[in-house]
Design brief:
641 residues; single chain; 15% strand; 41% helix; 17 strands; seven-stranded mixed β-sheet; alpha/beta; 3 domains; Rossmann fold; 26 helices
């Protein structure tokens, strides 16, 4: 399935006739229920082969249909937050026959992507972007004197983002025409948390106010005189305060509509048409069910948020034979916490993804989930560290990008020992450029005092977590990859590593080449070394372990006794581990050349790890060939003898 050319998909009758939103508009209202069911069936069966974000998209089928019946993309702009809930939008905008290629190499993206379709107004894989970006589009529209609509569809989890709240604060002061759809299903990846989540739940109980407003609007428009209308407006204002806790949106200058059933297409369409006619910033609050229409996803929306291949009938997935790095992290941190009551665990809306749900089960009072608010999570951790606790903050590498300011300005500058644990560091294959963790080394290694590590296997991950436990005078960070580990047994009592000390796996007196491999690239190095040995090229092998501080003694000794150093990292080569090695050698006036191998200075596309490694030369054969060619043709390789 992972190829540039996907097999044609046999589409059901209504979907076969949907080539653009105009075809959705042309359908009679009585056909919309069938269209919704065809979309659901297509998603359920297609994603069982490819994996993907099933539950979020099943929850927005009716909303997506209603949006495309009311608005006219690409002239009107519809943004999704997070855009992993845009699969239905893709189906309705001429990509139904490509849905079987979603997240596959050469296929369509699992997120909105501007280069993929003019209907994708804004591409983003991180939460908290749609309202700010949409508001910018609305301001641009106003400046150009145009009149198209801008609609930002935000999941309720996105409302815990600081950027979302900042944007809401600016809407009324920026434009008079802007529509926010609050898709309220009580979930982001995991169950939503915090005061805003409780607030939205309270709004769900205000159908009485919605009914009263509709009846009153009808009466005022069709029957009442001017004086009566004035009195009724005052009465409605008072009633609104009594019946519904809407002051939050009202004070922001937004007209609130809802809550309404997000699975009722006709009602959604009717209300959206009303909102579209009014020149006022508005928010439509809809209630949906994540995974709606597919019982396994409704019963377990967390597992079906982003799922691999599964059996359609049962919803079951293949059982993993090896623990993932995330599971190892959760288990090992829980063990360490049993003997150290200062250890705390924190995450930003992803306890199941980071496997801190394991920690939460054992130590619920020492676990904190702050919602999709990474910056707050980092600052919150700094406060805990300032009071003598040992916070371990686990966030995917791609989302930890948001915390760089806090890591530098708050943790490092004040020598606060926050432990930053970056899951999914390196390639995140099927999710693509929005989720690859390929930039964290470059962003963090310049921060003074920071300790940064990457393990070669599960046992070393446990030892690094134990190492972090003892670092009490500065922040530390660890990056570890997505997916299954190497199958290595976990230590019962992991011992800390010597700080800044690499592991020499193989060394000879005079090696032509020494590989300096980081983390999961050690297995690639080992295979490339075997291929080079078959060509008579002697190679040393060092597991670097530490990105910062580097093991200067070991690296300089390797440079002294090698013709070429080769760095291997699951990170872009620009500013990464290899760059750090080059800087060290240059500072010490060492002439040994360095061949840096990693991902290119580009945004890497989506696809399987196998496809992407082959495309970008990160296979044992490609690495061995580059090294041999460098030795043969480059005049800068130094003969240490």
């Amino acid at each position: 399935m992972d190829s540039h050319s996907a097999e044609a998909v046999a589409l059901p009758p209504l979907l076969a006739g949907i080539h653009s939103p105009a075809d959705v508009k042309a359908l009679p209202a009585e056909s919309l229920g069938q269209l919704a069911q065809e979309v659901r069936d297509l998603l359920i069966h297609s994603l069982s082969h490819t994996g993907g974000h099933l539950a979020p998209n099943l929850g927005v089928v009716e909303l997506s249909i209603a949006l495309h019946r009311v608005f006219d993309t690409p002239r009107d702009k519809i943004l999704f937050d997070v855009s992993h809930q845009s699969y239905v939008h893709k189906i309705l905008t001429g990509r139904a026959d490509k849905i079987a290629t979603i997240r596959q190499f050469g296929g369509i993206s699992g997120f909105m992507k501007r280069s993929e379709s003019p209907h994708d107004a804004y591409g983003a894989g991180h939460a908290g972007t749609a309202i700010s970006a949409g508001l910018g589009m609305a301001a641009a529209r106003d400046l150009m004197g145009e009149d198209y609509h801008v609609v930002a569809v935000a999941g309720d989890g996105a409302f815990t983002c600081g950027t979302t709240l900042e944007a809401l604060n600016s809407i009324a002061a920026t434009t008079r025409r802007f529509i926010v759809v609050l898709n309220d299903n009580e979930w982001s990846i995991d169950k939503n948390v915090g005061a805003l989540s409780r607030y939205f739940s309270s709004l769900q109980e205000t159908q009485a106010y919605s009914w009263l407003k509709e009846r009153a609007d009808y009466f005022l428009k069709n029957l009442a005189g001017e004086k009566t209308r004035e009195q009724a407006v005052r009465l409605m204002t008072a009633a609104r305060s009594l019946i519904s806790p809407l002051s939050f949106f009202r004070e922001l200058g937004l007209t609130y509509y809802g809550p309404i059933d997000g699975h009722n297409i006709r009602r959604l369409e009717r209300v959206l048409r009303i909102i579209a006619r009014h020149h006022e910033p508005a928010i439509l609050h809809i209630i949906t069910r994540k995974g709606y229409g597919y019982e396994p996803a409704e019963q377990d929306p967390t597992r079906f948020h982003g799922i691999g291949k599964y059996d359609v009938e049962s919803g079951s997935t293949p059982r993993a034979t090896t623990l993932s790095y995330s599971e190892v992290f959760g288990q090992c941190l829980t063990r360490l916490a049993q003997d150290d009551d200062k250890i705390l665990a924190l995450t930003a809306a992803m306890p199941s993804g980071t496997k801190l749900d394991i920690f939460r089960e054992s130590f619920p009072k020492r676990f904190f989930d702050v919602g999709i608010a990474e910056e707050h999570a980092a600052l919150f951790s700094c406060g805990l560290a300032a009071q003598g606790f040992k916070p371990y903050l686990a966030i995917y590498s791609t989302f930890m990008q948001r915390c760089v300011d806090m890591i530098e300005h708050d943790a490092a500058l004040q020598n606060l020992p926050v432990r930053f644990c970056m899951d999914r560091a390196g390639l995140s294959p099927d999710d693509g450029p929005t989720h690859h963790g390929l930039f964290d080394i470059a962003m963090l290694r310049a921060i003074p005092g920071l300790v940064m590590m990457q393990p070669k296997d599960e046992a070393e991950l446990c030892r690094m977590l134990a190492t972090m436990q003892g670092i009490d005078d500065r922040p530390s960070a660890i990056r570890y990859p997505r997916g299954a580990g190497e199958g290595v047994a976990l230590p019962d009592h992991p011992q800390p590593l010597p700080l800044g000390r690499a592991e020499v796996i193989a060394r000879h007196e005079q090696d032509a080449v020494t590989f300096l491999a980081l983390g999961n690239m050690n297995s690639l190095a080992a295979e490339a070394i075997q291929l080079l040995a078959a060509q008579g090229i002697s190679c040393g092998h060092v597991n670097a372990r530490f990105i910062k501080p580097l093991d200067e003694t070991c690296l300089l000794d390797c440079a002294k006794h090698s013709r070429l150093l080769v760095t291997l990292e699951d990170h872009v080569v620009t500013g990464g581990f290899g760059s750090a090695v080059e800087e060290l050698l240059q500072a010490r006036c060492c002439a040994c050349p360095v061949l840096c191998i990693g991902w290119p200075d580009a945004f890497v596309e989506h696809g399987s790890a196998k496809n992407l490694r082959e495309l970008h030369g990160l296979t044992p054969q490609a690495v061995a060939a580059r090294v041999a060619d460098r030795l043969l043709h480059s005049p800068d390789t130094v003969d240490p003898s």
